[in-house]
Specification:
single chain, alpha+beta, Aminopeptidase, 5-stranded mixed sheet, 5 strands, globular, binds coenzyme A
């Protein structure tokens, strides 16, 4: 579907609305209950992109990166009523095209069911999933952290 001309996508950090971002992420399947200060800290230390309609934020994505070799795409969402307008694809492409994120060797992401979206942005499934490993506390914001797991919140 073609993108509605009224929508804008921008990597200007000053336009981000943390209330909208936190409002979605605290309900998302991958970060239920995430505290606002954690979202603020993540936004501060990421390359972020927002989607806007009449100045109001309706979508978000961010890249966690070393700016040299690697970027991890996280927290991609579009508010329900604005989906199907190409905004997620435009945001991921804005991150991939960001001047500070050129020449990286590896881009990575995790998704439960949006593989089709990311295939359109140049991602593919792992050739050999047995080579990937993860340490993750999925319930960290609702059940607390496990001592020694490396997932202790930095307060
Ligand atoms: C997934 C999500 C971000 C997609 O946002 P969107 O703005 O509607 O997506 P787009 O309109 O940019 O989609 C672009 C293309 O990807 C496809 N696509 C979008 N979501 C998809 C999905 N979940 N699975 C497969 N393909 C998908 C679309 O069909 C579209 O293809 P087309 O160009 O051939 O029509 C949105 O549905 C959302 O916020 N979902 C809830 C949060 C979520 O699951 N985020 C992803 C976490 S990894």
């Amino acid at each position: 579907m073609r993108r509605d001309d009224r929508y804008e996508v921008s990597t200007d950090r000053g336009r981000l609305d943390v209330s909208v971002i936190h409002g979605f992420l605290s309900q998302a399947y991958w970060s239920p209950g995430v505290p606002r200060e954690i979202v603020e800290k993540a936004v501060t230390h990421s390359v972020c992109v927002g989607a806007y309609l009449d100045g109001a934020q309706v979508g978000f994505a961010r890249a966690v990166t070393d700016f040299a070799t690697f970027a991890y795409v996280a927290d991609v969402f579009v508010l329900d009523e604005h989906r199907g307008n190409g905004l997620a694809m435009a945001m991921v492409r804005a991150l991939r095209g960001h001047p500070d994120l050129q020449g990286l060797r590896t881009w990575l992401l995790l998704t439960r069911d949006a593989q089709g979206l990311y295939r359109k942005c140049g991602f593919e499934g792992l050739d050999d999933p047995s080579r990937a490993m993860i340490s993750q506390n999925r319930d960290i914001y609702v059940q607390g952290f496990a001592e020694g797991s490396g997932t202790k919140p930095a307060h």
